[in-house]
Predict the 3D structure of the following.
Amino acid sequence: MIAVQCSERKPHLELLRLERYIQQSIARNREALAMKVLIVHAHHEPKSFSSALFNQAISTLRETGHQVVISDLYAEQFDPVSDRRNFATIKDPDYLKQQVEEQYASENNGFAPELDAEIAKLEDCDLLIFSFPLWWFGMPAIMKGWVDKAFPMGRVYGMGKLYENGLGGGRKKGMVIITTGGLADGYTGYGVNPSLDAVLLPIHHGVFWFNGFLPLDPFVAWGPARVGEEVRADYLAMLDRRLRSIESDEPIRLAPLSEFPDFGEDTKRRFMVTASHKAPPDDAYRALIRKEVERTEELKRQGIIKEVHIGAPDSDPWRAYLIFRESNEWAVRDHLKTLPLYDFLDFEIVELATAPERMRSLQTT
C-alpha cells in the first residue's frame, strides 16, 4: 500500500519540479533581458495626458523587470539655462565657450553636482526615453535645455565619440513618447504639417544616433485633447503592450559614420528604381500586397530604401518609384529579388547624380 502511494506521488513531484524549473528559467530570461531605462519627462501638468503616458511607462517597465530612473524636469524644477553654473571648474574666466568648458570639466571632474547626476543617469542607461508634448514641432524648451547640458562635449561626445562610436555604441536605444495637438492625418507628409519623420529627425538623428543610440519607433498619442476618454484609455493600453516587449523592438537603422570618410560624401550611391506591372494585377498579385508593404517597410527601417512613391491604383500606366542607398546596381537588384511582388513587376534602375556631380553638370550646361 505504501509503495502504491509513493508511485502515485512521484509524477506529481516531477510536475512540481518541472514547473519550478520553468518559472526559474523565465525569471533568468527576464533578468537577462532587463534594461536600465532613463525616462526624461517634460510636462508641467501632472494631470495631463502626457503625464499619464509617462506614469504608464514607469509602471509597465518596472512591472516587467526593468530598472527605471526618471528625470521629471518640471517637477524637479530643472534649470535648462546653460551658463557657468554648469561647472565647478573654469577654463577661461574671460570668455565662456560652452564646449571648451565642457571639455575642461570632463578632464577635471568639474561639472556641478546636480548636472553630474543627470549625466551619470544618461551614461548608465540602456534605453533613453523622452516623454513630452510636441510643441512648435519639437521638444519643450526645458527638455532641449536638458539635452544641451546632459550631453557635454568630452564626457559624452567628441574626440571620436560620435555615431556608432559614441556613448550609445550602437547598442543603447532611444525612444520618444509624445502627444500632439493635431491628428495623424496632418503628419503623413500629405498634410499641412511636416511629416512626423521630418519632425523627429533632429531627435532621432541629431540626439540619439549622433551619440550612438539606436532610435526606436516613436509612440504617438494623436490629439488626446480632441478624442474621448475611451480613445485615451486605448492609447494607454497600446503603450502598455508596446513596452512589455520593448527589449525586442527593432530599431531604425541610420547610416554609420564609417561610410562617410572624413565626414565627407557618402560612400554609397543613390539609385532610382521605377517599377511597372508586367500584366494587369490578378488575385495572386493582390494577395501579396500586404507582404510587399511589410518587406518595403523593413528595407526602409534598415536604411536601404530611402523613399517610396507609389502611383494611384487606377493610374494608367501605373508606376512606383523607390530610392535605394546602396553600393552598386547589383546590390539593388538583390534587394528587389526579396520583394514578394518581384515576379509580377518590371524594374528600371537609374543611378542618381551626387550633389557635387549635379553642380558640375549645371556648370557645364
The longest helix spans residues 2-33.
